[in-house]
Write a structure and sequence with these properties.
Elements (H helix, E strand, L loop, with lengths): L1 H37 L2 H10 L3 E2 L1 H7 L4 H13 L3 E5 L9 E5 L19 H10 L3 E2 L1 H8 L3 H13 L3 E5 L5 E5 L8
Helix pairs in contact: 1-4, 3-4, 6-7
Length: 187
């Protein structure tokens, strides 16, 4: 009788542990899904590319609206999927610092999201603006580079923050980006 009770206790314990594990995994999956809805893998990859292939939770917080916890979860997700890897940070001897680096900074990661979109470089945007005599709108950039309007707005705003473009608003209310380096227009 004692053996049967022990066996029942073990089975119940395994069942309880399994249920707890199931709910923990489900909760983590839902959290990761919500974070991915806020910031896509592609956006994180682009931020890393703009930072020499490196990414950190702090950088991700600065460039997106993710909290530090959400940013670390996003990085862990990319680490587990093999898109990034940990690299020892030799500048910090505390023993707990790693850099997170894209495994292949030149790889086209669009297949991750099931999309066939184009990675647009800063040079592509600047070249399009030069062709447009130094003045471009997100809509015009969208058409010129065959990217979404949202991506065009994001790229222009990023370059505005880097002081490559100035913003002008026309009388009709259209936001126009003006190339700050006028010397590029005389070439």
């Amino acid at each position: 009788m004692g053996m049967i009770i022990s066996l029942i206790a073990v089975i119940f314990g395994i069942g309880l542990a399994g249920s707890i594990a199931f709910f923990a995994i489900k909760s983590h999956w839902e959290k990761t899904r919500k974070i991915s809805a806020k910031v896509s893998d592609k956006e994180v990859i682009e931020i890393a590319r703009q930072n020499g292939g490196e990414i950190s939770a702090v950088l991700l917080c600065e460039k997106t609206d993710l909290s530090l916890d959400e940013a670390q979860t996003k990085i862990n997700s990319l680490l587990m999927s093999g898109i990034i890897h940990q690299k020892w940070d030799w500048s910090d001897w505390s023993g707990s610092k790693y850099k997170y680096v894209l495994k292949d900074a030149n790889k086209n990661y669009d297949a991750i999201e099931g999309k066939k979109s184009k990675i647009v470089s800063d040079a592509d945007v600047i070249s399009a603006a030069i062709e447009a005599k130094g003045k471009i709108t997100p809509t015009a950039l969208c058409l010129k580079l065959n990217i979404s309007v949202d991506e065009a707005k994001r790229k222009l705003e990023d370059l505005h923050k880097k002081e490559i473009f100035e913003i002008d608003v026309t009388e009709s209310g259209t936001i126009t980006y003006l190339l700050a380096d006028k010397d590029l227009l005389s070439s």
